[in-house]
Amino acid sequence: MTPLDMLLSRASTDHLVEPAPSAAQLADVLATAMRAPDHGKLRPWRYVLIEGNARPLAAERIVASMLRLDPNAPEAKLTKRRTRFSTMPLIIALGMHLRPDNKIPLWEQEMAVAAATMNVLNALHATGFGAVWVSGEITEDPVLAAELGLPAPHKLAGFLFVGTPAEQRQPPRRPDPAQFSAYWTGTPVTFAADKE
Ligand SMILES: Cc1cc2nc3c(=O)[nH]c(=O)nc-3n(C[C@H](O)[C@H](O)[C@H](O)COP(=O)(O)O)c2cc1C
Q1: In angstroms, rounded to a whole number, what is the distance separating the alpha carbons of residues 6 and 124?
Q2: Which of helix, strand or coil describes residue 75?
């Protein structure tokens, strides 16, 4: 597979089984995060690794967060999240180590975390693993973030569920990239993607 084939064949999946990447494989995968564009070299990305017996502990914190945000959260929703966070082979809580007083704007710091996350997703795919980036309202819960090691002003950017894809799936259809670019020649461009 060429590097471009690899990038073009990545797709998210939450149908994940054991094994998760070994510590050595994970170190290689996370090394790609350090290649993300990063204005000011702030290195705002942080990875909280949750595996094995830590998963049910994390799942309880997730459920507590859901109930904090919505005391009437439906039982089925709580059970689904508890199960997912207890059973995914590896969970990576994505941390944003933010510096509000830095001259680099916060949005640029957050973008660097997103860029690093994309490298991690691609590296997982390149090494035969599957993953999906999930969020939900709990991502914005400062209490949960602090419990995971990201006290304010630091934040969560979501979670990666990581493991081995349970099955080979038909790759999802993707839009035509030509719809998302246009040459600017002096007047504002329009995009085919935005036409009704
Ligand atoms: C910041 C962020 C948060 C996301 N949160 C969720 C989520 O909570 N649930 C979900 O189903 N997909 C979520 N997604 C989308 C999936 O990660 C994934 O991109 C989507 O399922 C499409 O799959 P693809 O990556 O193969 O295009 C999120 C994506 C991003 C970038």
Answers
A1: 11
A2: helix
pLDDT, one tens digit for every residue, the chain (196 residues)? 999 999 999 999 999 999 999 999 999 999 999 999 999 999 999 999 999 999 999 999 999 999 999 999 999 999 999 999 999 999 999 999 999 999 999 999 999 999 999 999 999 999 999 999 999 999 999 999 999 999 999 999 999 999 999 998 888 999 999 999 999 999 999 999 999 7
The answer, yes or no, to whether any atom of ligand 1 lies below 6 A from the CB of 181, is no
Mutate to test the pocket of ligand 1, among 132, 161, 173 (most ligand atoms within 8 A of CB): 132
Domains and CATH numbers, the chain: 3-194 (3.40.109.10)
Q: Give 181's contacts (C-beta < 8 A, 6+ positions apart).
A: 191
